[in-house]
Model the fold of this input.
Amino acid sequence: MNLILLGPPGAGKGTQAAKIIENYNIPHISTGDIFRENIKEGTDLGKKAKEYMDKGELVPDSLVIEIALDRLEKDDCKEGFLLDGFPRTVEQAEALDKFLEGRGGKVDHVLDIDVPKEELMVRILGRRVCKQCGATYNIPNMPPKKDGICDVCGGPLMQRADDTRETVENRIEVYNSQTKPLLAYYDKAGNIAHLDGTTGLENVFNAIVGILG
Ligand code: AMP
Done:
């Protein structure tokens, strides 16, 4: 099963991804996570990506496409995958389709999670991520049991470097101008489901299970 999670920053893609991979046993591929790991390790790729990420801009297509397709070549993607944060432009979506066609595959489902802008701001500014295991929390809606400590592994919680008010405004604008056209692209392909991301974590997940079966 080849899946894509679409939606603006803060829509809950990462949270739903964690639940989907647990149920469907496919790898979770987040291009944002790949860039963050490279930044942490100080690689050339990380240095290049950071310039764009810090401003809330998209990393150039040529760079992202190479990274994403390289990852999809790995053995663990043979039975399917869940893409989170890729594709983000029509050019990326076309490159992905071409890659899958070349292997006799296709995108099976695109899950589009929508949330209004005001709610996105509240969610992103309240987002905390475990430095150790990557589990995500939300101060107003889904806080950890102990302040600043991860429920899962006991690691310290932190804010993502690009979760500042200014960067978030830009990321939402970039989503509207560059990623939203993908909705029409997949509407045309007929494989997209639109989900209301304000109905609560469990309801959104149940809707996803209803679609995937
Ligand atoms: P995310 O963790 O998905 O919110 O991504 C964080 C940042 O990484 C984005 O704001 C972009 O700067 C960059 N990024 C991640 N995925 C992509 C992509 N598919 N295309 C371009 N930039 C990306």
About this structure: Residues 9, 30-32, 35, 52-53, 56-59, 64, 85-88, 92, 162, 171 surround adenosine monophosphate (CB under 6 Å). The chain has a mean pLDDT of 95.
